[in-house]
């Protein structure tokens, strides 16, 4: 049986290592922790929209958000397990996910119109895609083919769902995408 | 409202992005909803009220957080 001291010692070593990586040369695993944290926030947020969406499109969107949170949940496990298989230690507590997430949530969003919920989901997917793109590049540099592959699949998933959600609100896939660098 | 795009040195970690975003949102005259840090392009997009704040102050706010600004572009009356 492990003692609390033994466990805390291991944790302290792991945290010191992660801190060092963040401030020296960031790696794919550190960026992927942020992707996981965002997926964790999206899990709650997509439920909020699933529960509170209103209007003529209730039945359609209620189902869409349910599919999205189920798929989101599958990515959470898949990406974390890929990190583990590559020898990394993904974040695994609510405290860590709250610290790492870059996606905000708000109780008042329950009063969003249906279109606003769709728009916000597009925005959150785009924001997490930014980190996914960076993590893909880093995994490439590190020669971590399997992690790169999983992240590319996740990016492709986000691309398709951004397009579908945009179509629902009468927009093209890349319309109003602030992340596109025009210069 | 004036729109500015600031080019920064390469942002390496998602936490930098959060620091810049929080810092700018607390700067008077900056339209909070408009602050967007583009992680891969290493750019900041922001709308601000010229009567309350100018570009220099915004650049300084970012540099004070430890992120050098390489160049800035402004589009007025946007």
UniProtKB/TrEMBL annotation, chain A:
PROSITE patterns: DPS_1 (PS00818). Residues 34-172 form the Ferritin/DPS domain. Pfam families: Ferritin. Keywords: DNA-binding. One of its GO terms (molecular function) is oxidoreductase activity, acting on metal ions. InterPro entries: DPS_DNA-bd (IPR002177), DPS_DNA-bd_CS (IPR023188), Ferritin-like (IPR012347), Ferritin-like_SF (IPR009078), Ferritin_DPS_dom (IPR008331). PANTHER family: GENERAL STRESS PROTEIN 20U (PTHR42932). Belongs to the Dps family. This is DNA-binding ferritin-like protein. It comes from Liquorilactobacillus oeni DSM 19972. The lineage of its organism: Bacteria, Bacillati, Bacillota, Bacilli, Lactobacillales.
Automatic annotation (TrEMBL), chain B:
The keyword Metal-binding applies. GO terms for molecular function: metal ion binding. It comes from the Bacteria. Residues 2-70 form the HMA domain. Keywords: Metal-binding. CDD domains: HMA. Coiled coil: none annotated. This is Copper chaperone.
């Amino acid at each position: 049986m492990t003692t609390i001291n033994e466990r805390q010692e291991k944790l302290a070593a792991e945290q010191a290592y992660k801190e060092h990586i963040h401030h020296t040369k960031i790696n794919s695993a550190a960026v992927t922790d942020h992707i996981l944290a965002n997926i964790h926030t999206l899990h709650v947020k997509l439920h909020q929209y699933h529960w509170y969406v209103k209007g003529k499109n209730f039945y359609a969107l209620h189902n869409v958000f349910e599919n999205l949170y189920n798929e989101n949940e599958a990515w959470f496990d898949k990406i974390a397990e890929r990190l583990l298989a590559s020898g990394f230690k993904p974040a695994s507590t609510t405290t860590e996910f709250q610290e790492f997430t870059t996606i905000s949530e708000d109780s008042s969003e329950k009063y969003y119109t249906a279109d606003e919920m769709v728009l916000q989901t597009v925005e959150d997917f785009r924001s997490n895609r930014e980190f996914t793109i960076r993590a893909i590049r880093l995994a490439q540099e590190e020669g971590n083919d399997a992690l790169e592959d999983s992240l590319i699949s996740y990016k492709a998933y986000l691309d398709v769902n951004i397009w579908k959600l945009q179509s629902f609100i009468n927009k093209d896939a890349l319309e109003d995408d602030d992340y596109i660098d025009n210069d | 409202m004036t729109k500015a795009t600031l080019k920064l040195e390469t942002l390496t970690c998602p936490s930098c992005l959060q620091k810049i975003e929080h810092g700018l949102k607390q700067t008077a005259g900056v339209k909070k909803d408009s602050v967007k840090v583009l992680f891969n392009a290493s750019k900041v997009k922001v709308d601000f009220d010229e009567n309350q704040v100018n570009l220099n102050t915004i650049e300084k706010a970012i540099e004070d957080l430890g992120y050098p600004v390489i160049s800035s572009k402004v589009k007025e009356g946007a």
